[in-house]
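Lab meeting notes turned into a lecture example. A postdoc, R.K., suggested we walk through two folding results consecutively so the class can see how the record format repeats. The first protein's sequence and structure tokens come next.
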Amino acid sequence: MSEKDYVDNYEDMTSFTLTEEQEASLLDKQTECSFMWTNSKGEPIGVIMNYVWRKERFWLTATRNRARVPAIEARPRVALTISSRGTTIPLCQALTYKGTAILHDDAETNQWMNTELANVLRPHDASQAAAFAEFLGASEGRVVIEVVPDMKISFNTEPLFKNSPAGPSPSYLG
């Protein structure tokens, strides 16, 4: 093992990143994220939201009565974080993105998003997915939040634990 492969402290984590394949897998397997924006006082705030990853962008939905919608209109810079927790990925993986949010309130984008989200959240039952999409579509003032990412941070515990003095994690050992 070379010196650069050995971890003797946890000070510099910049080399423990996801591969493109791992990133794609995490984006595909996870359905929720921590979505963050700033309020009118410039304070950060975040909530857990479901998302879909399509067209190299994040797509989320909310109703206009949620505080995040006018905040995004005033300050469209947002961030979101995705973790592998709750997925079939055995090791801790995480992604954080910064980007610009675009709000859509047209019927076509809403219908597309409602269908995409329903299919992601109800993948094994087409009738449940259709009912959920219809339920989303019935809510007044629903908007779609499109996030165009322009910065990413990824983290992968696999290479970190593989050569750690603490030893590989049980998940890595299989």
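The second example is placed directly after the first for contrast:
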Amino acid sequence: MKTIKSNSINEIIIKNSRFINYLIKIDSPSINNYLDEIKKNNPKANHYCYGYIYNDIKHSSDDGEPTGTAGSPILNVLEKNNLNNILTVTVRYFGGIKLGAGGLIRAYTESVTENLKKVELIELNKGYKVELNFNYSDEKQINYILNNSKIIDKSYNENIKYIVLIKQDILDKLHNYNTNILEEIYIEKDS
């Protein structure tokens, strides 16, 4: 399993239609903010077709293009490249020449494929999103154990609570602490 190291934008033109593809690294299946931002930056576009894979969740949208001509081909490129934790959106500005179903499938596939050629891919390993609750006196030890793990939320109340993305070996080291696995996820190999 792989993901992109950083986000990327690429544009191709096919028969006067502009296809602008966005590759976006995601850490949840909540994609509306990304779509809203892309629509705000491309207010006159005709279509905003997308596909994403986050863990076992996969979804795509043709956004008004004929059924199966945009979202499915976009998602297919992600699957064939064994990608995860990724959203790709192709914005289309219609150029006045109809492409037909086969032409649309090829155009949307090419928009993603060309952008993928520009990015560096990184390996993903199975990991966990964990809620960790502990005493203030344990904070130094917890931070030492979590060293290179990604802490996505901290709260300080009666106890300390972290939401953290960790690999199995780190989870094993936390066996003496109150941990609650929220979900199995894929995380970057070096996290």
